[in-house]
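so im writing up the methods section and need the Aspartic proteinase nepenthesin-2 record in one place, dumping it here so i stop losing it
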Amino acid sequence: MASSSSSIILILCGFTLFSLLLLANSSPDKNPATITLPLTPLFTKNPSSDPWQLLSHLTSASLTRAHHLKHRKNTSSVNTPLFAHSYGGYSVSLSFGTPSQTLSFVMDTGSSLVWFPCTSRYVCTRCSFPNIDPAKIPTFIPKLSSSAKIVGCLNPKCGFVMDSEVRTRCPGCDQNSANCTKACPTYAIQYGLGTTVGLLLLESLVFAERTEPDFVVGCSILSSRQPSGIAGFGRGPSSLPKQMGLKKFSYCLLSHRFDDSPKSSKMTLYVGPDSKDDKTGGLSYTPFRKNPVSSNSAFKEYYYVTLRHIIVGDKRVKVPYSFMVAGSDGNGGTIVDSGSTFTFMEKPVFEAVATEFDRQMANYTRAADVEALSGLKPCFNLSGVGSVALPSLVFQFKGGAKMELPVANYFSLVGDLSVLCLTIVSNEAVGSTLSSGPSIILGNYQSQNFYTEYDLENERFGFRRQRCK
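--- predicted struct ---
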């Protein structure tokens, strides 16, 4: 493969499509100021032998999640965005309880609550996924832990996920009395194609290096289309980084290859002394943008960054300013979301990008049939072509940081390897009006083989390309 600053020459050979792995065990780090966890793509086997069905699943899941992230509402229950199909995400293993019980969780920077399938009576409907027997989903058993406690209604931590006003969440309780025995209300997490319901617990979160007592975690007893728990890494008070007081966290996302191997990469939690302004070597940084002060508090959980330019080949794509920068109402702008697979762009942004790819690849025929089957576009028919010059794709952020994507992070060879599709999705809304929520959601597919750092202490987002093993 040869490349220039504006194009990439792809030699068409035996590319495999993209795969998902499952399960990992915690491994200690020699540095006591850090905690290191294995991070793996979900599922160890190809969820579909039909590449069209797989791409259609990933496209649909990305669009469903984008719709949810953009349209979350404030309710008295938890309304957390979760990945709809359980394809395309990444998992970590966490241990809770005394003695500890270890479970696998989807790592999600777009939500905050940490929850697990709970009790021997846990039920998950419509959970017949590859390698998943709904009747044998691993669950946390509270009665086997001496440290498990139900969160009380008057406990301030109940307000992490419920209404912060005691009178609202605890009707009939005297907030000045310690005698109220009511439990924190049941949470109901809603997401694109499913739900989960349960009670909040205070439990010990156990690592080899340290234990976090009285960690707020959801004990879900009923779910739909969600066979695994969620580890929320968002900005809300119930998230793992907030409860642990992390200075920063980082991860490197393995490629979504279908290779059936139990490979994993590292996720590191930084719990040590203040790092002040120390930067990690080789990283490009852009500051996190201050979350919008919106009537929708859900937007306060996201990691906003300022995307200045989208560059296709040697052409800077013209995108209206209102889509690139979040307004005070939370509409517009860019967020980083590990739970989304394909990057989402609002229709006017996507059309500008797709049109530029189409213009620079005008020598290749559009594969309209594949676009209809996969839900992706533009797709190009490369039958009989020995090599093809692909325009490069670069995201340039505030401060000058450039994310130069490898071709496998934004184009996918599908079917018999004669068709190439852009792996960015958009809604089908007509017109150029700015809809609610972020305009651009950077998904994990575009972050494959990037080391990514969320520096919470210094409010900045860092990244560099590297092989993630």
